[in-house]
Amino acid sequence: MSYRFWGWELNMANPEDMIRQCIMMLHAMSEDSTIPRNIRRVADETMKVLQDEKKTIGLRAASALSMIDEVSNDSNMPIHARTRIWELASTLEAVPFD
User: Fold this and answer.
1) I need a surface site. Which of 7, 22, 84, 92 has the fewest CB within 10 A?
2) Rounded CA gap, 43 and 45, in Å?
3) Residue 69 belongs to a domain with what CATH number?
């Protein structure tokens, strides 16, 4: 499956493209002023984890998923942000961990 996202041609069968999509989603969240600051901070930290090419793709995805999971239960999170978090978690879960 392939589609265009922010000018990128993404192939969702490719783990690198899946990570790239997650980074773009996190960037959009970190720039959204309607999302509480603590959640935007976690989005920034998660982006850095996903961009760390010293680690394997699977380890980056698992670490990011753990960070996102912790913030997903925040009671101050707006509904639209929670939906983005779930979409992000779903994409990260599809990245092969091995």
Assistant:
1) 7
2) 6
3) 1.20.1440.50
